[in-house]
């Protein structure tokens, strides 16, 4: 309000609004316009302007309005152009559109805009559009280039539904299994520290490792075996033998296509136990379809908070302790089936 004088020039929009309403109220009560102007330390011309606005539009005409441009007004890119750039970012990698790299940055999106519309943007300018489009900077999921999209589709639409139906008809148990290795020098997770100085975690300088095999069900059950030797067909048979001992009905075990799972030794063992267990294989290069992968991640996140293993025996003990703890926490185990890429298991199991 350029005509305000004195201290009123520095008032907030809310304060100015209150003054306008009070001034008009005084005029309505019959106060003189010059007297009102002096009372509120504004010019007579401003008081006349308020009175005219009140007569034309009532109280609403005196309320403060947001200053500046409305959201989306006078944007350099049209709505159609913005929609095209947004969809290009969601559907393609930079290299797929003739730019460099596999991941989008603000600079690369700026290059894309220039390539399409010959308009240059600063990185902050691109960032404002990204915020408006509802896009955030995220860590992407990794996918193997060897993954067969058709095989994944068949798994979702044909293979997995057939396994589920058979298991239900046989009153069997469905479990997802995987193996994992844990190293003594592995540091995962985060901790607080001073900015600019990376925190140091003290660990033994000796390198050793242990391995584990686990299997989980949608009921929250978890079965495991910790071992120190290399995972091979003999270890797999030992795990299968232990697993079937926990059930009085047939087990349908879903695993990846590790060579040990498909070995002649395992096939021979399965032939001798075909009434107790059957193996089913996930599509190649598709670990995201296996919820037991999330148990592996859970293990690797949890151990740094609990273990101070100085040798292989202690590391094996800590690993077993983790699995025993999860056996008493079926809610957490069931929660692994709620992951983005494995939710299909729960969704289809409830149909």
Describe this structure in words.
It contains 13 helices and 5 strands. With 351 residues, the protein is α/β, with parallel strands linked by helices. The chain has a 5-stranded mixed β-sheet with strand order 3-2-1-4-5, sandwiched between helices. The protein has helices at 13-28, 33-40, 44-57, 79-91, 106-117, 123-132, 149-169, 233-244, 264-271, 292-306, 312-327, 330-335, 343-349; strands at 173-183, 209-216, 222-227, 251-255, 277-281. Residues 1-6 have low confidence and may be disordered. The longest helix is centred in the middle third of the chain and has 21 residues, at 149-169. Helices cover 45% and strands 10% of the residues.
Sum up the structure in keywords.
alpha/beta; five-stranded mixed β-sheet
What percent strand? 5-15%
Largest beta sheet: what is the strand line-up? 3-2-1-4-5
Strand count, sense and barrel status of the largest sheet are: 5 strands, mixed
Secondary structure: number of strands: 5
Shape: elongated
List unreliable stretches of 5+ residues.
Answer: 1-6
Would you list the SSEs in sequence order as H and E?
A: HHHHHHHEEEHEHEHHHH
Q: Give the % helix.
A: 40-55%
What structural category arises from helix and sheet content? alpha/beta
Mean pLDDT: 84
Task: Evaluate the radius of gyration.
Answer: 33 Å
Number of helices: 13
C-alpha termini separation = 64 Å
């Amino acid at each position: 309000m350029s005509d305000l004088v004195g201290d009123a020039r520095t008032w907030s929009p809310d304060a100015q609004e209150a003054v306008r309403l009070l001034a008009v109220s005084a005029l309505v009560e019959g106060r003189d316009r010059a007297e009102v102007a002096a009372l509120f330390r504004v010019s007579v011309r401003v008081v006349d302007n308020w009175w005219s606005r009140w007569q034309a539009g009532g109280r609403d005409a005196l309320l403060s309005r947001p200053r500046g441009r409305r959201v989306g007004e006078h944007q350099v890119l049209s709505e159609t152009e913005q929609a095209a750039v947004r969809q290009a970012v969601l559907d393609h990698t930079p290299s797929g559109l003739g730019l460099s790299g596999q991941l989008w940055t603000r600079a690369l999106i700026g290059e894309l805009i220039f390539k399409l519309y010959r308009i240059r943007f600063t990185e902050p300018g691109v960032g404002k559009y990204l915020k408006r489009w509802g896009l955030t900077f995220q860590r992407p999921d990794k996918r193997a280039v060897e993954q067969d999209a058709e095989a994944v589709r068949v798994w979702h639409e044909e293979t997995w539904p057939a396994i589920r139906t058979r298991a239900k008809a046989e009153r069997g148990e469905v479990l997802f299994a995987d193996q994992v290795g844990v190293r003594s020098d592995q540091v995962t997770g985060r901790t607080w520290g001073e900015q600019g100085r990376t925190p140091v975690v003290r660990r033994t300088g000796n390198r050793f490792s242990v391995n584990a095999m686990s299997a989980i069900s949608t009921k929250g059950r978890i079965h495991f075996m910790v071992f120190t030797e290399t995972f091979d067909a003999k270890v797999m048979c030992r795990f299968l033998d232990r697993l079937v001992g926990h059930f009085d009905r047939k087990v349908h075990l879903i695993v990846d296509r590790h060579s040990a799972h498909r070995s002649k030794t395992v096939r021979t063992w399965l032939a001798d136990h075909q009434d107790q267990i059957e193996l089913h294989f996930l599509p190649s290069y598709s670990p995201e379809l296996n919820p037991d992968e999330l148990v592996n991640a859970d293990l690797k996140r949890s151990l740094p908070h609990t273990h101070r293993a100085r040798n292989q025996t202690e590391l094996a003990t800590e690993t077993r302790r983790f699995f025993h703890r999860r056996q008493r926490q079926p809610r957490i185990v069931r929660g692994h089936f709620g992951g983005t890429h494995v939710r299909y298991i729960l969704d289809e199991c409830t149909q």
